[in-house]
Amino acid sequence: MNSKGFLIVLSGPSGVGKNTLMNRVIPRIPNLQYSVSATTRPPRSGEVDGVDYFFVSDEEFDRMIAEDEFLEWAEFVGNRYGTPRTFVEEQIQQGRTVIMDVDIQGALQIKQKMSDAVLVFLLPPTWEELRNRLNKRGKDPMEAIIKRLERSVEELKYIVDYDYFIINDHLDKAAERLITIINAERYRVARADLEEMMKLWQRG
Fold first, then answer.
1. Would the pLDDT of 113 be above 90?
2. Sequence-distant (≥ 6) Cβ neighbours of residue 2 within 8 angstroms
3. What are the residues facing 53 on neighbouring strands?
4. Considering the domain boundaries, does residue 102 fall inside one?
């Protein structure tokens, strides 16, 4: 039986493993669509427009902001990234579950524009473990890591605005928790096609 589509937003501190978790879950759930973002940065080798990102000019990005076409957007290292509202809404209308990962600020922006979006906060098992993960990435100097950790403590305050939380203590276990949340949301009565349900009952 079909259910109405919806948006699930995964966020949490930098380095907690959002992208890794999504990549583990997406192949395991039918009809789960990753939300493709728009960006002003040029495509890298092998990236495909409309698959990896929607690559747009600065002028086009400005127009999209002015016409409120983003659910959220932010600037990072001189480039801008945003979630196109139309893409997400079209996928939802087709009955798909759309999943995306954004920072806490972006998640709260989305919740303001799509009140039925499902927000999931991903936590590290401990802040010490988060520091270890940030160190192992090797992307940032120690000063930047300290700032990210300090910011993470502040970000935790926003967990009260979320619907669910997952502790990423083990990737496979965290994936099972996220799958459970998505499946539970799919079986909400509010998302069910009640007309189809009645037909199935009458057939039985």
1. yes
2. 95, 193, 196
3. 37, 49
4. yes
